[in-house]
Amino acid sequence: HVHQSMSNSSTSVVANARPEGPKTEEEKDLDFANYFHSYGFLYHQKDMLQDRARMDAYRMAILNNADNFKDKVVLDVGTGSGVLAIWAAQAGARRVYAIEATSMATNARRLAAANGMQDVVVVLEGYMEQLNIPEKVDIIISEWMGYFLLRESMLDPVLGARDKYLKPGGALYPSHAQLLLAPLCSQLYSQRLSEYEEEVYSWARFGEYMRAQNQIDIGVLDPVWDKEQHDYLMNTAHWCQLHADEVIGDAVSIFEFEVGAATIEDVSTIRSSFSARIHVAAELNAFGGWFDCQFKGSSASPAALPVELSTAPPSETHWGQQVFMVHPPEAVESGDLLEGAILCTRQKQNHRLLHLQVTFKITRLDGTATDERTIKYKID
């Protein structure tokens, strides 16, 4: 999959790291309930296993580079059903340590045995940060990417495992990642706006009912209801499978990194400026966000056949794309310059979820510019 220009952006990072894994049993239970619980069900695993782009990228990255895996020790962080670990074993790995935080570990053992790899694949159940494996590894494989690349914070245990277990010159699969943002004229905008207006209308009718039936005036709560619905429908990111023609300008990289060099601080808080040229006359009513990853191996052990996994539209993956509404919209013309900055941070109540702040203005071809706007979103 090919995405549009990734030029004209600059990125810096700000420290705001998360401690390595939940510390107490209470924290562990809460994290498990909020996040890991669903990964223990096959229905969730099936959702990922039937994602053809995802599966093709990992399968080709591992099996088409079997020379990189032959006789090597591999660590699979977050193995799920164990498929990546089995591929690594099929590629000739001497030993594969497959780490899984949920009871899906039992199914991963079953699957490894059913595919004749029980003597190579060692499945360990628990948090990566709290387990010990008996040797250093040559390669770490992991499917850690979440919505908008960084939602779920699953990269944290991968980086921790890298620092603790990866041999010098060892490789990470994937090795590189980019987070992209693009201006949209999205079909989803009118749907969400209509839903918001309907919710405001239905609350007004409900207020009439409460007065007539229960002699209670709830009008004082009108602004609360309005804000609640607006925050969810217009200021929360929405999963979407975008069509290519909904992208109306350059897709620009707002954050890119090498997994072998990144720190938890790097991925915890991101500040980035961006500049994107508008391609068509349209209504700018949203921003779209997605990611690309590459499997290049390491400088000491480069992949002979590098692979790219792109979630850019119109590719269809279980990640989809994230859509951030611009309300009210802005009229744009071909050639207009969209400039701005983003701030992406982790939510304090749940570090696996994100806040995104986008500040932007549009400069017309005649040199005039719109007022600068700032919109704050949640990625839940």
From TrEMBL:
Chain ranges of the Protein arginine N-methyltransferase domain: 191-363
Keyword Mitochondrion: no
GO biological process, one term: methylation
Gene3D superfamilies: Hnrnp arginine n-methyltransferase1 (2.70.160.11), Vaccinia Virus protein VP39 (3.40.50.150)
Polar residues bias spans: 1-14
Source organism: Coccolithus braarudii
Name of the protein in its database record: Protein arginine N-methyltransferase domain-containing protein
Recorded GO CC terms: nucleus
Superkingdom per UniProt: Eukaryota
Lineage: Eukaryota, Haptista, Haptophyta, Prymnesiophyceae, Coccolithales
